[in-house]
Amino acid sequence: xxxxxxxxxxxxxxxxxxxxxxxxxxxxxxxxxxxxxxxxxxxxxxxxxxxxxxxxxxxxxxxxxxxxxxxxxxxxxxxxxxxxxxxxxxxxxxxxxxxxxxxxxxxxxxxxxxxxxxxxxxxxxxxxxxxxxxxxxxxxxxxxxxxxxxxxxxxxxxxxxxxxxxxxxxxxxxxxxxxxxxxxxxxxxxxxxxxxxxxxxxxxxxxxxxxxxxxxxxxxxxxxxxxxxxxxxxxxxxxxxxxxxxxxxxxxxxxxxxxxxxxxxxxxxxxxxxxxxxxxxxxxxxxxxxxxxxxxxxxxxxxxx
Length: 305
What we know:
Elements: E1 4-5, H1 8-13, E2 30-34, H2 42-53, E3 58-64, H3 65-74, E4 79-83, H4 96-105, E5 108-111, H5 118-131, E6 136-139, H6 142-145, E7 148-149, E8 152-153, E9 161-163, H7 167-174, H8 178-183, H9 185-196, E10 199-202, E11 207-210, E12 216-219, H10 231-245, H11 249-271, H12 285-292
Parallel strand pairs: 1-12, 2-3, 2-5, 3-4, 5-6, 6-9, 9-10
Antiparallel strand pairs: 7-8, 10-11, 11-12
């Protein structure tokens, strides 16, 4: 199957949900973000900005307790859940009871931005994916790499799952050399998609999005300015927001990659090739969604979302 370009034509043929004026914030979806260690607290903020700018109605962020009040002041739009921390400054798996309850009410759960230690996030991820059957799961950074265990692959099957690795994370997951991944990123993405029964976004200068059914999409227009700290956290937040709104996983990921890349391109047009801050990416997302045209997504069996 040949790759299909992610462009305006593809997006028009695969539109986002159309939310009419009669719905409240809950009709546009609830996102739960589990992110931000003591050392990388800002990742939760960046992901939250991506989720809200992509149109999600309700945002909840679970982060380390020592970061919670600061994050709440920086993002007053979100409900902040301060979690017990491990001795290394990560979210402790003992928080799983409350987070499972929140995940059961969410439409999309994003795990991973700013979390470094695989062991606690793997334990927490297993609890959530095993007990919360409602939401789509977006697994980023260590939440993705921790799926590869000493006993094989801990695939979160039976649900909508999206993973968002760069080549280094994919190399860790597949236990391959990074250069091998970069030599054939599509093969790596397809391998992971089949292992996990998940949509995979293989991030890079040319981003490849593949499904476990073998669908292959590519986006080629991301500027070099997007290669900056926190850019991937924003992308993960965008796809979580779109999935919460009701977009199917492949469609949500394709739109997220396009919106992220096109926002970067517009910033470069205004400011030059380098110096983009990740927090600046989300500002153009609402305009971009409107300009491409978000027509209705049909429910399976008929009817609009």
